[in-house]
Amino acid sequence: MATKPTVLHIGDAIKYNHDFYNNEFTSRFNVIQATETTREEFIQALKSQKYGPFSALFRPHFQTGDFMGQWDSELIQLLPPSMRIFASAGAGFNWADVDLLAAKRIWYANGAGASDNAVSDTALYMILSVFRNFTRSQLAARTADPAKFTATHRLIATISQNPRGHVLAVIGFGNISRKLAFKARVALGMKIHYYDVVRADTRTEEELGATFHESLDELLGIADCVTIHTPLNRHTQDLIDERALALMKPGSRIVNTARGQIVNEDALVKALESGHLSAAALDVHYHEPQVSQKLASMENVTLTTHVGGGALDTRINFELNAMKNILAVVGANGEFVGQPLTPVNTKAFEEAMRE
Fold first, then answer.
1. Rounded to 5 degrees, what are φ and ψ at 242?
2. pTM recorded for the entire structure
3. Is the pLDDT confidence value at 1 over 70?
4. Angle (CA) 243 247 248, round 5°
5. What is the domain count for the chain?
6. 175-188 vs 116-132: helix axis angle to the nearest 10?
7. Which of 55, 261, 295, 354 is the most buried (most CB within 10 A)?
8. What separation, in Å, do the N-terminal and C-terminal C-alpha atoms of the chain show?
9. Which residue, among 83, 112, 64, has the nearest Cα to 8 in the 3D structure?
10. Are 182 and 235 in the same domain?
11. Are 65 and 71 in contact (CB under 8 A)?
């Protein structure tokens, strides 16, 4: 009897898609749960080939299974030649060297798509908040002080604006930001402008009424509100620094639902304190989970706890998509049979396969 390919499961057991797991996934694969709780233990397990020639790594919950720390050369070089795909929940992948995985002919697939609506909805809320000063108003209401309530009621109308007719400058034009662009244009009447290293096709631009800019500097210069939707990597860390913020119009706003380290927090604080920026909204933070004390003290700053994708249906689909990505890649004998549904390292993987 043929042996099924092995999948090494990292982190907590599945929670939601039990029927799919039992009927589709485990019928195709021998799933083994990793038992290590530290990076050192996991390295030793890989060195000793404790789990044998597994074909895939399966991480269905992005808040667990991170005991091994950064997936860098120290870990990746120890993966067996039989390895085909690392399928993980979550949209971000700054904790894994996806190009190095590709160099070893290993796909990396994230949970892209599962959180698109939730994150774009969060960004939409934040856009409304920075234009209408909802955080300042909420903080005043929560004092239960009639004088504070009345003073803020009078102030808000003199410092707030409707988003309609204003330029929403989108940095990174992927699935999430395209959903946001549609919502902001249709629901809020905003003008959509964007910058990405890869320009969208003409049909997409026409459908979303989106104007492309050849450079980030050019986009920042016309923005009434900047919203960030680009991955964190060596090219985008501190992308929005003091120089970039200075290019924005006086009184403009910024929203970040991507990754905290894309925006330099010291520069952001300085721009807000000087009044160059009128407001900011952050779901993600530079030193997360530590939130900047200075930003937390500002009434014109909306802060949340990295909950952009934090909806139950997001979690369910993260888990399901991780299984589907492995099914799409690994055949009955552990061979490649296709590519993931949500690949991250396609270009580097294809280059490695041509070598």
1. -60, -40
2. 0.85
3. no
4. 125
5. 2
6. 50
7. 55
8. 35
9. 83
10. yes
11. no
